[in-house]
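Input record, target 12 of the design panel.
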């Protein structure tokens, strides 16, 4: 049987695999329910389920997702100067450092280059399993979404129209730092792909129009992609929502894997995207989290996921099974297990791995 690293590489190269690779994202409450079901710690859920990829953040997403507070209202200020507050299961932006700032203060803003070594330290735990699992390094958000975090989304979006030169300068600076992080990660660690991204798509269309995206964002994204491509790594890109108009552009600048394929959004049906772009692009995602997973029966989830996997691997590969967003907490556990069963990972296999994890922890205590 293939190990996870070999399986993902083979799938992306369109080579035979023993099963489709899997990497699932769960809402924190969903992860806790799975941990309770398997009687294991939350940090061991991915291992028990058989997920093939291990990844962490060296960019600003660590401040949002990697720092966990116990109680609502607790805050922290990240290395970019963004203040976050815990609201429910997630950290939300409380204050952006450049919100309401003058042009002079915006142009004086400096990204946290002096903390790059500290940010790279996030990679060390995942590298311990680098011989077995496919390893990713996440430098996102890279450009527009990063500017939104330090400037405030409303003002950042207004700058694109009202102050394009200022917007261009902010995007250039964000791109410079993303390139710096990418180079440090790719040169410092034996990773398998460089994970990039910005949420530029909405439920009905792009937040940033294609013309503006091509003029102000695409050149910097190309610089970031080039860091991974020049080192022989796969390059992945994440954007929620509808981004169909720029998929050819992403391919043009070197994209290998697109995520998460929210097929409820216009132009984002995964099977149609596979037909249109599958010869040039691999995909990760596409299992509907808005309707299918939380509301369908387990049999319906199994059939739908099986059909998706078969269609997305019709050319021999180029697909990683994943949901189109974090699997929501209202999803029945039977539906999650049915989705994994469609990937060739049965309930008994998952339960056996859970038992092995419990036994290992017991022997260490």
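The sequence produced for target 12 reads:
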């Amino acid at each position: 049987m293939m190990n996870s690293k070999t399986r993902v590489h083979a799938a992306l190269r369109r080579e035979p695999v023993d099963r489709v690779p899997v990497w699932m994202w769960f809402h924190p409450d969903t992860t806790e329910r799975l941990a309770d079901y398997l009687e294991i710690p939350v940090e061991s859920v991915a291992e028990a389920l058989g997920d093939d990829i291990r990844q962490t953040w060296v960019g600003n997403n660590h401040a949002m997702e990697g720092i966990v507070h116990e109680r609502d209202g607790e805050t922290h200020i990240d290395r970019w100067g963004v203040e976050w507050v815990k609201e429910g299961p997630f950290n939300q932006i409380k204050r952006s450092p450049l919100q309401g700032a003058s042009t002079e203060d915006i142009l004086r803003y400096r990204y946290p280059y002096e903390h790059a070594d500290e940010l790279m330290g996030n990679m060390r735990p995942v590298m311990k399993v680098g011989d077995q699992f496919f390893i990713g390094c996440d430098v996102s958000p890279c450009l527009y979404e990063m500017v939104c975090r330090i400037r405030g989304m409303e003002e950042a979006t207004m700058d694109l129209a009202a102050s394009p030169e200022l917007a261009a300068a902010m995007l250039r600076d964000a791109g410079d730092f993303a390139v710096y992080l990418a180079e440090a990660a790719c040169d410092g660690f034996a990773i398998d792909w460089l994970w990039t991204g910005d949420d530029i798509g909405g439920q009905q269309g792009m937040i940033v129009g294609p013309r503006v995206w091509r003029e102000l964002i695409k050149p910097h994204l190309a610089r970031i992609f080039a860091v991974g491509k020049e080192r022989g790594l796969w390059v992945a890109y994440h954007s929620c929502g509808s981004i169909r108009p720029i998929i050819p552009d992403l391919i043009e600048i070197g994209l290998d894997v697109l995520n998460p394929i929210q097929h409820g959004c216009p132009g984002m049906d995964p099977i149609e995207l596979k037909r249109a772009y599958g010869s040039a692009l691999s995909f990760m995602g596409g299992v509907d989290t808005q309707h299918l997973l939380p509301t369908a029966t387990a049999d319906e989830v199994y059939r739908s996921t099986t059909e998706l996997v078969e269609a997305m691997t019709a050319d021999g590969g180029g697909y990683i099974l994943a949901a189109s967003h974090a699997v929501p907490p209202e999803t029945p556990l039977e539906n999650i297990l049915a989705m994994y069963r469609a990937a060739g990972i049965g309930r008994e296999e998952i339960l056996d791995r859970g038992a092995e994890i419990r036994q290992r922890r017991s022997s260490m205590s």
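The chain has a mean pLDDT of 97.
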